[in-house]
């Protein structure tokens, strides 16, 4: 036993006796054959650390695999696979995650599977006091999937059309893009993005408290035929108008620039007409206003409002006033 004590940094021993700065101890398995005359003596000094544990009767000790059905502070209700229900006190328990690492009560959710060690209550064997708990459902993991929904601080991911997890983004979540797209915040993510999320995973409730999100791929945006096309003409071209127009007095193509604004007045873009006065440009669906550049004196054009619909090129005819009278 002396050789064993030299090899071990710590060992569970039973106290046989003590005196001065020495303890008489024995391994629990040697107790029937050990007395003060043949016990091992352990010298103590000012750096010696002690941990005293009560000897618990074997019939009160327990180890069970339980599934959490209710939570109330440090108390929980959990069931075995056979349906037995226990009340478990976790107030003094050490809690760890599935692959090790410190955990806490805050990481336990209804549905989590726990490996619980502790003692039974003497009066009620269905009351358990846990000393050590491993949450088998919680661990540091990763989910690779396609974003299905974006809502506030939550992203729903699916892999091969099967729900993988709901990822919860926090203020500490780190983001990374790829060689083509920059991702600095959750607002840079889009539905359809394929991402890799890493963080604290809870299999029971299918959530991932995300520490990092990396964009892997983003689907190409299909070309849409949405916008406006049309023709811009200037008239009159002669001092006196005739109907039908006299030869050489027909309206002429306007060759120049046009400006497009949103209905609220926000500048969108500037476009140019060709030699036939024709123009075409792509726009997102919405209501727009087409006008001449602000520094244009002649010709004149009253702003024209146009509604652009998804998948359509809206036709617009612009008639500019030349100012000839």
Describe this structure in words.
The protein has a 5-stranded mixed beta barrel with strand order 4-5-6-9-8. A 5-stranded mixed barrel has the order 10-11-12-15-14. Strands 16, 17, 20 and 23 form a 4-stranded mixed sheet that branches. The protein folds into 4 domains: 2-43, no CATH class; 61-136, Nucleic acid-binding proteins (OB fold (Dihydrolipoamide Acetyltransferase, E2P)), CATH 2.40.50; 151-217, no CATH class; 227-321, Sandwich (Immunoglobulin-like), CATH 2.60.40. It starts with a helix and ends with a strand. The protein is an all-beta fold and 325 residues long. The protein contains 1 helix and 23 strands. 2% of the residues lie in helices and 48% in strands.
List the helices and strands and how they pair.
Blueprint: H1 2-7, E1 14-19, E2 22-26, E3 40-43, E4 61-72, E5 75-79, E6 85-89, E7 94-97, E8 113-120, E9 127-135, E10 138-151, E11 154-159, E12 162-168, E13 174-176, E14 194-202, E15 207-217, E16 227-235, E17 252-253, E18 257-262, E19 267-272, E20 278-282, E21 286-291, E22 304-308, E23 313-321
Parallel strand pairs: 6-9, 7-9, 12-15, 13-15, 16-23
Antiparallel strand pairs: 1-2, 2-3, 4-5, 4-8, 5-6, 8-9, 10-11, 10-14, 11-12, 14-15, 16-17, 16-20, 18-19, 18-21, 21-22
């Amino acid at each position: 036993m002396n050789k064993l004590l030299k090899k071990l940094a710590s060992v569970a021993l039973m106290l046989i006796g003590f005196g001065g700065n020495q303890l008489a101890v024995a391994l629990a398995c040697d107790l029937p054959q050990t007395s003060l005359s043949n016990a091992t003596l352990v010298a103590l000094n000012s750096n010696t650390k002690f941990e005293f544990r009560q000897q618990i009767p074997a019939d009160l000790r327990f180890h069970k695999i339980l599934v959490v059905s209710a939570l109330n502070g440090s108390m929980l209700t959990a069931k075995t696979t056979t349906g037995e229900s226990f009340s478990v006190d976790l107030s003094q328990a050490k809690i760890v995650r599935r692959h090790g690492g410190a955990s806490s009560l805050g990481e336990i959710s209804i549905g989590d599977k726990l490996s619980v060690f502790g003692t039974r209550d003497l009066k009620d064997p269905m009351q358990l006091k846990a000393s050590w708990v491993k949450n088998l459902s919680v661990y540091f993991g990763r989910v690779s999937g396609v974003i299905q929904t974006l809502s506030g601080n939550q992203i729903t991911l699916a892999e091969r059309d099967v729900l993988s997890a709901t990822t919860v983004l926090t203020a500490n979540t780190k983001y990374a893009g790829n060689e083509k797209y920059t991702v600095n915040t959750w607002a840079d993510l889009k539905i359809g993005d394929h991402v890799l999320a890493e963080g604290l995973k809870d299999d029971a409730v299918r959530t991932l408290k995300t520490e990092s999100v990396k964009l892997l791929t983003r689907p190409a945006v299909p070309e849409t035929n949405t916008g406006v096309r049309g023709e811009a003409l200037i008239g009159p071209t002669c001092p006196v108008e005739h109907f039908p127009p006299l030869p050489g007095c027909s309206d002429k193509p306007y060759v120049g620039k046009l400006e497009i604004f949103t209905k609220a007045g926000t500048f969108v873009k500037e476009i140019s007409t060709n030699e036939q006065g024709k123009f075409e440009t792509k726009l997102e669906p919405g209501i727009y206003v087409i006008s001449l550049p602000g520094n244009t004196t002649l010709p004149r054009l009253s702003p024209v409002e146009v509604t652009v619909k998804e998948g359509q090129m809206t036709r617009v005819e612009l008639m500019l006033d030349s100012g000839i009278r």
